[in-house]
Each structure stands twice: as C-alpha cells, then as structure tokens.
Amino acid sequence: MNLAKKIGKLPLKWVTASDISADGNKILVKTYMSIFLWERQGSEDISKTFQRQGKALDYELEPQGEAVCWDNESKGYFTLSEKSGDSPQIFYYYPFSE
Asked: What predicted TM-score, i.e. pTM, was given to this entire model?
C-alpha cells in the first residue's frame, strides 16, 4: 500500500503530470501550458528540491496536453495529449540538454 503525503505546494496551476528520472535526480512537472524541471542536489529530500524555482523546458503547446515522461535513459522526455476533436495526436520527443 502506498500513502500520499503532502510535502509542499508548487506555485503552478493546472498540473497534469509529473515524472522522476530513473536515477531519482530530475523531476518533470507538466501543466497545460508548460513543463518545468527540478534537479535534486545529492540525496536531498524532494520537498527541499521543490523549494527552488523550476527551470522552464521546451514544450510544443498541445490541445489538452496531459502526459509527460522521461525516456529510458533520462536523456529526453515525451509528451502526449488527449484526443481532442479531429486534432491529430502527436507523440513529441524533446532531447534533454543541460
């Protein structure tokens, strides 16, 4: 059983998705309009990581963009929207550059 625990509050609205890289060091948070990155410093607690300002990343605005995830090697991230009317769904990939 997993139990969610509130660890803080981000200054974002309309958060739709989030993902943590396989090594646990990079965190993506997606809203309908943007994607932000937080990077942990060493083994710091995630609540401390979120106290810093996230870095805005590249994002092609999608109709009802709902999903974000890292690739297998955390070298880039994917986004996908929900189907909206006759709009095609595009599976976007963004290479991650530090």
From this structure: 0.88
